[in-house]
Amino acid sequence: MKIALLAHDRFPIAVPFAGGLESFTWYLAKGLRERGIDVVVFAAPGSDPELGAEELAVEPVSLSEQARSDVSMPPEGQVRETISYLQVMTALAERDDIDVVHNNSLHYLPIAMAQSLKQPLLTTLHTPNTPWMEPALRLSPSVRTAAVSTSIAHMWRDVTDARVIPNGVDLDRWSLGPGGDSLVWSGRIVPEKAPHLAALIAREAGWKLRIAGPLSNQEYFETQLKPLLSEDITYAGHLEPDELHHLVSHSAACLVTPQWEEPYGLVAAESMACGTPVLAIARGGLAEVVRAPGGLSVLPEATDDLTVSSAARALEGVLALDRCTVREHARAHCSLDATVDRYVDYYRELVAQ
Predict the structure, then answer these.
(1) Domains of the chain, start order
(2) Where is the Glycosyl transferase family domain (predicted)?
């Protein structure tokens, strides 16, 4: 088979990953290639050439001064993104060598243009319902869908019947580590991921905390997180994969603190693969990933103060978990190989139909 993977055009599919969607696309492409499946990728320029995937190029958007002066013009980034997907879908409609188009973007246009393709279009739902994708799916009943968790599938249940295929992590890259004397938090530094709550939990429990991830929201960092940094609570930056693995595998436990309906929780799976147990606030699909014996989820309380105190009290039980048992839990429930195999089976079904 030959599979076309559509990501979004904001960030390249390359390390260090901008977020979980880029990581998922990179590992899926790698897994497909290892199974002898050709891969065509559309993403932002600069995606990793070591994937050995054909990269779908698009022409940059060129706007005249007259177009720019239109008072009704939407943000230029939105125009550029839409035209990029228009070019990609037009190019794919002319190709006979691709068996399935697998849409991992968060844009409505691939769904809206699915009828123009010779191939079936599979869309993975990586987020809760969005106002652009929801009506596009309602108008495109032929588009098949997958969801990264049962929680996400449930959110979309009135729009599409999504098959649940949980994300997975590379158990070779995320190997067992010895633990350490501090906690860890990793992910995008944004309000909905709420690393400031991790800082408050660590401070309440009397533990050191190391925070890693891209500064995706500078204002949030400056106003909410930076004031909490200290000698014991530090920001390590946006780390390369090997550096992040070392940090996570040499930590006593991982805190995951979403303030939105977390679709899956890739950082939790990565941590458990290292043997590092997880304490997570149970939002969205995260509770499906973090459960004994790999970690513990605590229900979000009515206020941040209550959430912090209940999580700090629960930390002792998480720290008592055996690291080898945590690793085996990840092997059984969070394997990238299982994720890729399930997608390959889905591709084959679509081709046969």
Answers:
(1) 2-168+335-352 (3.40.50.2000), 182-333 (3.40.50.2000)
(2) 184-300
